[in-house]
Amino acid sequence: LVRCPDDPAEWGIIELQGIVVPKQSPTLNGEVLGTLQIQNKQPTLTIGNHILSGTTVTLKKPLLVLQKDSSASNPQTQSSWDTIAVVRKKYLFDQKPHHHITHK
Amino acid sequence: SVELSFSTNLSSPQQYLLLEVTEELLKGELSQSSSVLIKGPRNQPAVLCTDNLTFDLKRAETSNMVMLVNQPVDKLSGSATLLSVVPSNLELVKIRPDFLPLSQILSESSFNPEEESKLKAKTLEEIEAEIAGSRGEILAHIEKHGGFEYKGRYVILATETEWEILEDVTTFIKAEGWAFDSLNDPEIRDHLSETYPVEVVSYIMSRYILPTSTSQIFTFNTEKFAVFTASKILREKTSWVKDVFFSKWEEALRWVNEDAKADPKILEGFALSNKLMLTWFPYDDLPKEPERMFAKMFEKQKEWTLDQLLPYVSRCAKILNETVDSLILKWTASSTRHGVTYYFER
Predict the structure, then answer these.
(1) A1 CA to chain B: closest CA distance, Å?
(2) Closest-CA residue in chain A for B41?
(3) How far is B17 from chain A (nearest CA, A)?
(4) CA-CA-CA-CA torsion sign (B330, B319, B235, B308)
(5) What angle do CA A63, B62, A72 make, to 5 degrees?
(6) Measured on CA atoms in the order B262, B267, B268, B274, is the torsion positive or negative?
(7) CA B50 to CA A48: how far, in whole Å?
(8) CB pairs under 8 A between A and B
(9) CA B38 to mean position of chain CA atoms
(10) CA–CA distance, B59 with B56 (Å, rounded to integer)
């Protein structure tokens, strides 16, 4: 069962080409990814020494975000999902990162 | 600048689903439907069903890292939490449900009031659990194929029973001296109610006795009668010599209208016609995907003319929102002999 409200909240997506691997801890839980800056509507993401330039993409088709309802009355026979948001825009970082060099 | 951090409780990807939709669907069918279900009956791939539409679910994977944040990206400020990394999304492709299993269910739910104890029929919930399709489309298919609800279960009248009742109605009409386009609904209803259950009477009346623009005057549905008699006769044999079939059909039609002529156009979409023969071959019994649909058609007959293809391909094209030409081009090869183009399996 998928429940759809009339006017869901709007969320966003940050999309990177490649994957981010935690440096010290075993998982990404609670880890800082980096810093996002917007200049002239163009996003830039700094992750450690890497600087990624991105673009704002308006999705041709919006994405509904469904979250599983873990309190469903009979999870053996039916699962329920709530539509909690819709995504219409994302920041896409798909270009080769630059390296930020600091001189001591 | 905005500091982006992963949630301390970074959700399992399975807890979120991304479903690609259109704005039209979002503001229309999805928000107006009383229920939206993802279901996967036995041996069938999962589909998403609104009240009246059915969609295939196609998974689109990405190697990119897709991270959800709970604000629009252009409203981010200060700090923001990345709630989840979602490696794929589901795409919706509108489809016609596969009604072959439903045709099977209905054929096993054939109802004869004199043998009610032998009836094996299913409730709507039981049917929905077996059919990968929306409730609206299932009910429309049941109604189109002569199904109706009897004591909470869906049945179709046995062909011979429906024929018997139609003979009863038409004999009664003639005995009362009424014209078939000027009928008295309550009297016909009362007459049938003496013999048949109320659900059967309602089915027959709604199907064959139609209101007119003049209140209290009803007309016999000669078109439905023509379709019923044609399909009844066609199913009596594997195939018919055309002349013999049309003669028999016209004889049946003239029972209600002395000037009736058998119209071959009525047979489009449920009878395959070649030069000499006619065969029962309904579109609704064909698979819904074009590839399998064409395979079934070429299994039935190796070569098809355009006139033979059109009634089937046009129905498929309408559902898929494609053109007839594009489907024929994609799934058939052709050759021309003596000025006639024949289509066959690629």
Answers:
(1) 4
(2) A77
(3) 5
(4) negative
(5) 50
(6) negative
(7) 46
(8) 143
(9) 20
(10) 10
CB–CB contact A36 B76 (8 Å): yes
Contact B36 A1 (CB under 8 A): yes
Confidence (pLDDT) at A58 = 95
Give the contacts of B330 (CB within 8 A, at least 6 positions apart): B290
Query: Would you state the pLDDT for residue B14?
Result: 60
| pLDDT in the model for residue B236 | 92
Chain A residues in contact with B14 (beta carbon < 8 A): 68
Please count the helices (runs of H) and the strands (runs of E) in chain A: 0, 8
Residue A80 to residues B145, B155, B337, Cα–Cα distance (Å): 33, 31, 58
In chain B, where does DSSP find H-type helix?
23-25, 31-32, 100-107, 124-130, 135-144, 159-176, 185-193, 198-208, 222-234, 242-253, 290-300, 306-320, 324-331
Residues B270, B230: Cα–Cα separation, whole Å: 10
B242-253 helix and B222-234 helix, angle to the nearest 10 degrees: 140
User: Between chains, do A2 and B48 touch, taking CB under 8 Å as contact?
Assistant: yes
Q: Taking CA atoms, what residue in A is nearest to B24?
A: A61
Whether the predicted pLDDT of A104 surpasses 80: no
Closest by CA to A28, choosing from B31, B210, B165, B10, is B10
- Between CA B204 and CA B302 the distance in angstroms is 39
Q: Do B69 and A11 touch (CB under 8 A)?
A: yes
**B-chain residue closest to A85, CA distance:** B70
Cβ count near B8 (within 10 Å): 10
Q: What is the mean pLDDT of each run of 10 residues along chain B (346 residues)?
A: 87 77 86 82 82 91 91 90 89 86 86 82 92 93 89 90 93 92 92 93 93 89 92 92 95 89 91 92 86 94 94 88 92 94 93
**What is the model's pLDDT at position A73?**
52
Predicted local confidence at residue A77, as pLDDT: 52
Q: Which residue among B7, B16, B63 places its CB closest to the CB of A66?
A: B16
Question: pTM for this structure?
Answer: 0.75
